[in-house]
What does this fold into?
Amino acid sequence: MPPGPFYRNRQRVGWKLPKIMASLLERWPSLSVPYVDLGARPVRVFSARFDGRQVDVLDEREAAPDYGGNKVRKLEYLLAEAVARGATDLIATGAAGSHHVLATAIYGKRLGLKTHAVLIPQPDHPHVRSQLSAIARECVEVYPTSGPIAAAAQVAWLLSRLRFGATPYLVPVGGSNAAGTAGWLKVGLDLADGMKAGTRPQYRAVYVAVGSAGTAAGLLAGLRLGGATTEVVGVRVVEPFFSRKKRVLRMAKASVDWLRKHGAPVEIPALDGFRLQVGWYAGGYGRTDERIRQVIKTAANAGWALDPTYTGKALGACLEEHTGEPVLYVHTVDGRPDRDDPLPEGLRALLIDK
Ligand SMILES: Cc1ncc(COP(=O)(O)O)c(C=O)c1O
It folds into this structure.
């Protein structure tokens, strides 16, 4: 499917019929930001029962036709920004099984952009292997590195190499900067609208995994801009240094600031009612324990395939704190089954023993 229309300064600069109605530009006619329609669908919420506990699920399995999960909503703003800057190549960094790197490569390709991946090791798991082989297929090159410092050095080298003859765009880690976060701010606003109109339950809390923090930050900012007081519970899945409460709040504010700066008539709302839940970290990014394996099994019995790095932990926290009041769990992973494709030899070192 070809990509949808591009907007720059509210001028359509490419492609077929506008689907602008689904974006923030619809809400605020004065807003002027780059945006590209990658096919992100309106939010879908299903009711589910996990071991007798009723939970609403914000289902991102098919968030867009080419690849689901929580990244496409960020990429509709980020990749538009890349194109607006004349980018030819994208540099994306992440862990071996990064959903963000894969989504960037898939949607970048649709826009004619080449993705160079810089990856760091992650505990081995069939889902991670499936992701890694897909990343190898979709990217023009993949650089395995030994960890975050080596990855930063690799990115610096790559940027300077690509500047000869190409225009690289460095995609923020996890797709989380002010522009990427705006994709999830829209989801928060839609949820708040639904609660106000009575078409959605008054949720006590929304549970979402926190990696690079843009998803939780966007939800928080959007809910508060829309006047909802629902608690946002961010379930931390990465190292404490990287994912602090302060970072979520800073990013939520930055996203609203970004909208203001580009013409949206909004004030910064009070960004309270956010809680970082650290009890499901399991000692490391991508690590699991018996509790998480049990949650994954419970979800599978209810027809939901969780990944061990993000959604297994987010749903675990949601079920642990279940009180019977309405809650929303955000299912942020693509819904296609894992594939058992062979891994390129040079990438095996990225999979570490648990
Ligand atoms: C499946 C999944 N869920 C949740 C997240 C966390 O989103 P964020 O990085 O915006 O905190 C990620 C990020 O990589 C993800 O891949």
Summary: Confidence is low (pLDDT under 50) at residues 13-21. The first helix runs from residue 24 to 27. The chain has two domains: 6-70+176-331, 72-175. Residues 66 and 106 are 8 Å apart (CA to CA).
